[in-house]
Amino acid sequence: MISIKGITKKFDDYIAVDHIDIEMKEGMVFGLIGTNGAGKSTLLRMICGVTKPDEGEILIDDMPVYDNPKAKEKMFFISDEPYFFPHGNAVDMEQYYSMVYQSFDKSEYYKLLEQFNLDSKRKIATYSKGMKKQLAVILALASKTEYILCDETFDGLDPVMRQAVKSLLAKEMGSRGLTPIIASHNLRELEDICDAVGLLHKGGVILSKDLDEMKCQIQKVQCVFKDESAFESAMSTLEVIKKEQRGTMYTLTVRGDREEIAAKLTGLDTVFCEIIPLSLEEIFISETEVVGYDIKKLILEV
Amino acid sequence: MTSKNSFWKYSIWNLKKRSWILTLSSALSLFSLPIFTYLSVSGLATDYWQIQDKTADDYNELVYAILNTNFYSVLPFIIAVALGIFMAIQSFAWINKRQKVDMYKSVPVKESSRFLYIHLNSLFIYAVPFALCLLASNLIVLGYRVYNIVFAKASFIIFFVCVLTFLSVYMLVSIAQLLTGNMILAFFGGLFLLFVEPACRLSVFMFQDNFLNTFYNIAGTSDFIAKNITSPILAGLSSFLSFRNSVFYSEENAFRYYRWGLGLISANLYYVVLLLLQIAIYTGVAYWLYKKRAAQTGGKAIVFAKAIPILKVVIIFTISLGVGVLMTIAGNYYNNAIMYGLVGIILATILMHLILGGIIEGDFNVAMKKAVKSLPASLLACGLSCFIFFVYAFDLFGFDTYLPKADELAGFSFVRPDDPALNVVWDEEYEGEIKMNITDEHAKEVLLTVLQDAMQREQYIDTNDFGGETLHSVRDEFGIDSNLVYRDEDRCESVYVTYYLKNGKTKERRYCLLPTDARKIYASFYATSDYKDIANPFNKEYVMDMIKDSDTEKQIIYTSYDFESLTQSDHQKRFSQEEIEALAEAAKADINDRTYEDLITKAPVGMIIYGFRNPNEEPKQWDTSSYTYYGAHMVVYESDERTVSLLKSFGLYKDTQIPLDEVAKINVYCEDTVVRVNVSDINTETATEVIQRVLSIEPDTELAEKVIEDAFPMRAQWNAIDVEMMSDNDYIVEVVPKNGETQQYALYTIGFPQELKEAMKDAKENNAWVSRDYY
Question: Is the complex ipTM higher than 0.90?
């Protein structure tokens, strides 16, 4: 398990990460989502020991991470722009990583290279962006670490490769309990694979829950009220975090589980009422609106 | 990386990645040593083997040449510095790239291990090829069958010094690399760190030299700079030169007194310890910075925000001092050194404040907006520079007027420029410095009293901007055709005084005293044993040993003074060993017994030149130029009874009194200045004209008798002991014989007759001189 307690990181006067508490259980896919500049990459770098937090602690299986090779042996970090040796090829990279990771599986590595149609002797500088990402993923998988931290890894992969990577991750999870931690803006992609999600905004955590639990606790309600008083009653009864109106139709984003909300709606004067589960993207937008990250505000201000 | 095996695996991997630098290092070492050695030794050895009757001297010369051009060549040292700078920049270049930092810092490698193997590999990359190339050079020399064990010793020394220098330079530049966020700034920052202290010291030295009238540095600028603490280049160069000089500047040492490398190291321990300390401190600082440095700081000018004000202060302080020095020197030409210097400091501060701001912010527009906010550090630097400047410009701490208290003074030295009785005499046999140190209480009292009095009269410094002429330099102008005669008594006499204080410290001052003041001081210690031990070369044991050593070939020349010529006379003789020893013993006793009055009241009658031939040289013709090892010029006075007695017994002594009845006229020349003022409608011009006057004396006067009695011809006596500072005034007295061609020749009197002084004064006042144009 990765335990993050009270983590803070500042760059000069800018607070990149502000007192974050998150737990990432092993054996689950953890998705790290957030607005631009929320601190996702900074958090990932602190988890893998690249950056030292100013406050708080990060423990991996109860071991502090920073400058601790034993803890770092358990994880592999795929940066958003992975570095490869200039004039080097896949073989050179294998030599390096097999040296630093005791658990590196060379046969698995070359097998994956073949599966992905990557030439091991070809200079990496001639690879496309997507091919480089593929190579980075292959290196991560071949290292046989317990945790893989992916910073926007799926971006740049074509849909087929994305599926291939997802299935590989799933296979590794099943076979040896791999725990991927994936930071991405592609919420649709994450929704398919993540078991838990952490939502960051301006360095802080808005949400950190199991995805199912998160979806259960927020619903979209579309309804038409008989009259104004019914609407007002609904607003006071329900925990509405967002409302939109088109004509007489209200679309409300409400906190609470489905049954609870349904029960409350029964007591209200509604002409029409339907409860719809939110997608991860909709949850993201709603939750960030609550904290002021409102697209309508941005458009109006611009 | 959790095991030692992993450490070595990683080290080897890192070495492979840096193989191109290993190649570069090898190539540089190869060219600087074995290839260079081959090119030079092939010629030298070939020439040697072609010599028909080789002697030990020929071999020694060959060994000397090989040492000089190869093993003690400065090229390996330069390569050590260059590689140190280059490899420091290269070793941590990855730290400025985000992608590289992500990769290297996310893998399971301990940071301390990474730091260690990077630096160990850097040392390996430099030292191993260098060592192999040194070995190759030795083998090449061996191949030419001219090998000497001294080459192995020299190899050890040069390897030791160069490795220490490399490490120190490397670590210091690594600090610059870790402080900055890009390679270009790291490079310039490294250069700055390498030279900041010597630059500041040199600037301060230049201020001292420019503003302080009594300042001088006996060791000279190069030694002054060599005593720096932080710069590994100068510490390394000083140690290299110190080792080199220990071997070379006494040629015998290279072959007879050369000790094993460890012995040489202990003799130059200061520099070795300095370099080791630098390495330790710089490594510690570099490691601390490496650990503290945040991961994603590449691209920033200065990585540590808290270091910015400190660096600004240091940089602006250094540069403003330097510019201040340059402007001060320029200002001297306009007699406005202080204003120029101050303007230089302020301008440099403003410029550097803006430039550094632009570099740090990466944007000059942003820097201009933040110019006021970031002002305090620049103002502090400017304030420090100005303070240093004012200290010397206005002598705030009373440097020029310093005089120790009587109870503080343990001893002193008092020498004139080029005085053979120098402040420091190098004793080659005993390899130590013999310093003049007058401890006589009466002498100390006279010194302090005279100097205090001179300071009160403000007649103790040279007020001539371009340096005042001294009597010594005037004497240099004397010669057969010299027309220069009279020098005003108000000219100053340069003296160097070193105060040895009871607390162990020394203070050095240069004064420009009236000749009368200087002579009072000289008179107070001349007869003391402290002075005689220094000034009398025959008091030194090793000199007498050389004289008594019959194997050491010596040449003694006696020159007497007569009116016919001022060149060496025919009075030369090859003295036997017994005669030489007798003369030396006599000189030793006579000089010890000599009083100050003997010097200033009596004219010398001749000069003995003692020379010892370099035992490594073949005998050459009998002239002093072949005596390169040791030489002393000893004037002989009439009061040197033992020496005069010996000279008479050798038939060399000649009475040089001039018979008055053979003299037609005596002319005394003097120099006078006339100020002419031309007034026109436009301006008033003042011109100073130097003219020469002649006072003629008839031979049948009492004055002529007095002059003839006291005047003796003498040629300029460079390096003659006991002659400096003895003269009263310098005059040219020309004796025109009744028969024969009038010849002008330079001679001066010592203890000039008072009657002549008065006659000349009267003649001047009455305008009774016979004038003629000066040129």
Answer: no
The whole-number pLDDT of residue B625 equals 46
Is the pLDDT at B643 greater than 70, yes or no?
yes
Q: State the maximum Cα–Cα separation within chain B, in Å, rounded to a whole number.
A: 110
Among the four given CATH numbers 1.20.120, 2.60.40, 3.30.70, 3.10.20, the one describing domain A217-301: 3.30.70
**Does A73 sit within 8 Å of B2, measured CB to CB?**
yes
Sign of CA dihedral B220, B225, B228, B232: negative
Contact (Cβ atoms closer than 8 angstroms) between residue B498 and residue B413 = yes
Nearest Cα residue in chain B from A13: B305
Lowest average pLDDT, out of A45-49, B217-221, B365-369, B590-594, goes to: B217-221
Residues of B in contact with A44 (CB under 8 A): none
Q: Which CATH superfamily is domain A2-210 in?
A: P-loop containing nucleotide triphosphate hydrolases (3.40.50.300)
Q: Under an 8 A CB cutoff, do A79 and B102 touch?
A: yes
Largest Cα–Cα distance in chain A? 73
Q: Which residues of A touch B97 (CB under 8 A)?
A: 83
- Whether this prediction's pTM lies above 0.80 is answered by no
Q: Is there a contact between A96 and B295 if contact means CB atoms under 8 Å apart?
A: no
Q: Give the C-alpha separation, B451 to B517, whole Å.
A: 8
Best of A51, A66, A124 to disrupt the B interface by mutation (most B CBs within 10 Å)?
Answer: A51
Weakest-pLDDT range from A135-144, A183-192, A253-262, B753-762: B753-762
Find chain B residues with C-beta within 8 A of A124's C-beta.
none
Q: How far apart are CA B305 and CA B292, in angstroms?
A: 12
Q: Does A70 contact B2 at a Cβ distance shorter than 8 Å?
A: yes
* Residue-wise pLDDT tens digits, B675-696: 666 665 555 666 666 556 677 8
Sole residue written with tokens 């050895």 = B45
B13 at interface of A, judged by CB pairs closer than 8 A = yes
